Amino acid sequence: MPQNPQIHLVSRPTGEPSADNFKLVTLDTPALQDKQVLVKHAFLSLDPYMRGRMNDTKSYTLPQPLNSVMIGGTVGEVVESRHPKFAAGDKVVGMGGWQTYSVVDADTPGMLRKVDTTHVPISHYLGAVGMPGVTAWHGLVRIIEAKAGQTLTVSAASGAVGSAFGALAKARGCRVVGIAGGQDKCAYVVKELGFDACIDYKEHKDYLSLSKALKEACPDGIDGHFENVGGMVLDAVMLRMNQFGSIAVCGMIAGYNGQPIPMANPSLILVNRMKVQGFIVSEHPDDWPLALQELGGLVGSGQFRPRETVAQGLASAPEAFFGLLKGKNFGKQVVQI
Amino acid sequence: MPQNPQIHLVSRPTGEPSADNFKLVTLDTPALQDKQVLVKHAFLSLDPYMRGRMNDTKSYTLPQPLNSVMIGGTVGEVVESRHPKFAAGDKVVGMGGWQTYSVVDADTPGMLRKVDTTHVPISHYLGAVGMPGVTAWHGLVRIIEAKAGQTLTVSAASGAVGSAFGALAKARGCRVVGIAGGQDKCAYVVKELGFDACIDYKEHKDYLSLSKALKEACPDGIDGHFENVGGMVLDAVMLRMNQFGSIAVCGMIAGYNGQPIPMANPSLILVNRMKVQGFIVSEHPDDWPLALQELGGLVGSGQFRPRETVAQGLASAPEAFFGLLKGKNFGKQVVQI
Asked: What SS3 class is residue B157?
């Protein structure tokens, strides 16, 4: 069996994570048991939720254990199979973690899924046609319940979730305004992703200033918002929400590294009779087939062409992850193994 | 036609309202037009929402105009009628305002409703079997969607809305824990209203301390919360909410007089996949008949015996209102005209 380079979490960060929280280890790949499949990873997904897992605190899932392979979504190819439904050469998506190979108990539901790479590049099954895409779909369809003609906003608009949100919202006839960090990202969001407008939050010193820019970009107010960030962006959006507006809360990346960030004016929830609802996409398995079908169609037809930032080689994963947490990536961040 | 003493709003408060914001004026009652009804008020309702109306800022309704009768719910008796559906002697509930008589265009839907005072004292149609009761019902049934066996909490538990929430929740087999200000109120909430426990928030210097008390009173966590206050109480409750819990936001009384009060840890909305939703009861007219029927049954049968604080005479309304804003009342605050 082949050698399997892998990255372990060896200590928990206080504040920002750093390289010494991780360790590159090379182990042998164990021989396959019955119903198991050996997958060689082509790409590893890096996602903001991983920062939360590095902590040892109560959250919606268990913490990542120390001294074992970091959790993470992967796409790749079956190289050996002892399961009747998988054969060598199959392209698959799973949760293989930060390593070169994974041995998967393919009988466990949801562990491994074959994908069609005829029209959709395999790495997109980690982004637009994967977990981030379904995340955007759930927030848009189930929480915001978007309707044609509405104005919607999304933070981290150039990222994997934000860009999928924009494509899905445009397909429904909504006006979509992105919020992103930097002129380059904003230009990409408007010119390549087809958003109606994009606001660079870095140009604003506080939420009142950002809120003014939102007022110009959203002259009819905001009917629905998808929150990936929290903090100043959320405060600014709340000031512009219309009556009976909904906010889908998917991420609070700004708070992961330190103290909780307060919400400036929660009384707006009452004044505008808003709904603010948090969710995690893995708890809504029923949505996945419908969402993936729509997202696959948008990407396969070329209607939605999301960019990716590709780091080269497993060893580059920690640095690429730190960059993701600082917003250095452009679109979906993956690592080519 | 009789003389009609009435109270006008003559200036807007900055911060706490005071007596000089109001003026007692006596006018003649105009002669009735066709389809109009003259009502002599027995009781005037005082409610926290009135503080919001005194401001000239955007809220969910228009501000109370200056130099006209303060808005408010009233119960009383028809003394003269030019409408075929009303006759002298009818007991009615309406929005007569801070005055002794009102002339009502009885053809306008929702302006005037006859009530049965056989089993329910008339003043209760301003509280337990009126707008506050329906408010509690909507939050409990439509937003929290309470189920038997769940643990629910409510702030301002001894007030008109809070006490109705407790009665409705107990009728559904829930564990109900109140939060109120002072030992006397807490004793009333448990001994007379039948809550399972009540926490005196005045005994706690910050939300972390209050949250600890909530942990003891709610060993299985909190599944649903009805918020009448905001601020420290909301922050404390959020720390104890269970996964998929719901918060119905009905009041933010603590913020009316000054700056917005932030929410300490909004990321809990994500961590616990919570729903936080604001509402105002007047926008849900379909709920009223069902809610009033249930509330009338609970009060009429003696299962729910809410207390009232009764101020005597129209001129006492401003002082009684200031007391309400400071939590001096015990149960529903009304003014006997």
From this structure: coil
